[in-house]
Amino acid sequence: YEYKGYKPPKNGWSLSKAKMEQFENEGRLYMPENKEQRIQRKQFLDEYKGRPVGNLWTDINVINPMSQERLEFVGQKPEPLIKRVFDLTTNPGDLVLDSFLGSGTTAAVAQKMGRRWIGIEMGDHAYTHCKTRLDKVIDGADAGGVTKSVGWQGGGGYRFYELAPTLILRDVFGEAVISDKYNAEQLAAAVALHEGYTYQPDAEIFWKQAVGTEKSYLFTTTRPITAAYLDAIAAEMQPGEFLTIAATSFPPELAKAEKRITLRQIPEMLLAKCAFGVENYNLPIIDPPRAEKGEEDEIG
To answer: What is d(CA 84, CA 106) in angstroms, rounded to the nearest whole number?
Structure first.
């Protein structure tokens, strides 16, 4: 059929004449002045459901060499690429993990888009690239990437942890010994962590070094344990309190000298929990200075 003098398409109209009249009355048709041209149906944005995202994203450009986003890091990805991934797979407040953080793009975009994040990196660029970049993001000094498109102005924070060295080593005789890289405080904190205690030294009572339950404590020491030393501690204990002492050594006869005190040798109690002969061991004892502004997310 003909419609108001317009040339019908080669294969005919896709709508009935009644439907065409309905759409025209509703303002849903574009009718060009030149009737040799085709009538077009209008698609309103609020009615458009979109289309599935394909696997070829040609609309995302590589990083401009002059861009503030470019860090001269091999393999660095454009922030708009990571933003697209987050838009498709996450919501604000979700937790994002990047176990090979590289130049820090994932963490930077996650921070700007209101996602929580954990980034892991073993190279020196954890300091030279990741930390430097994220400090600028937090301070609102990073004007590159998706900063403008998401309206980022700075804020938030993060914690930065280092992997501590191996706690238990083997000596030349094959015996398990404590690494000399740990001072007394680090050793006590490490043992408490492994044994499921909270490292929380009491300001007045030295042996209340770590807390388990309400009246259960852990005390880690490298000094020799004697009967007099044990008696002095027992005399301070209140009814219902229990104590585990982790020591480097003690006379076997003292192991059962006090019913409420358990003596354990540090290397032996940690043998099944520590790795041997590795430079980086997953025990976050070292805690460098952290960002101070706002709420904190994690980088481990």
So the answer is: 11
How would you classify the pairing of strands 176-178 and 168-170?
A: antiparallel
Nearest to 96 by CA among 118, 121, 126, 78: 118
- The DSSP bridge partners found for residue 297 are 158
The overall pTM is greater than 0.90: no
Digit-by-digit pLDDT tens for the chain (300 residues) are 889 999 888 888 888 999 999 999 999 999 999 998 989 988 887 777 777 777 888 889 888 887 888 888 888 999 999 999 999 999 999 999 999 999 999 999 999 999 999 999 988 899 999 999 999 999 999 999 999 999 999 999 999 988 878 888 888 888 888 888 898 999 999 999 989 999 999 999 999 999 998 899 999 998 889 999 999 999 999 999 999 999 988 999 998 888 999 999 998 888 877 766 555 544 444 444 444 444 444 443
Sign of the torsion formed by the C-alpha atoms of 90, 94, 98 and 103? positive
CA distance 201 to 192: 11
Where are the strands (E) in the chain, listed by range?
Answer: 29-30, 40-41, 95-98, 116-119, 158-160, 168-170, 176-178, 198-199, 210-211, 216-221, 242-247, 261-265, 297-299
How far is Cα 101 from Cα 133, in angstroms, rounded to an integer?
Answer: 12
| 138 token code pair | 């937090």
As a whole number of angstroms, the distance between CA 267 and CA 249 comes to 10
Kindly give the pairing relationship between strand 116-119 and strand 95-98: parallel
178 forms bridges with which residues in the sheet?
168
Q: Which residues pair with 169 in a beta bridge?
A: 177
Torsion, Cα 160 165 167 168, to 10 degrees, reads 160
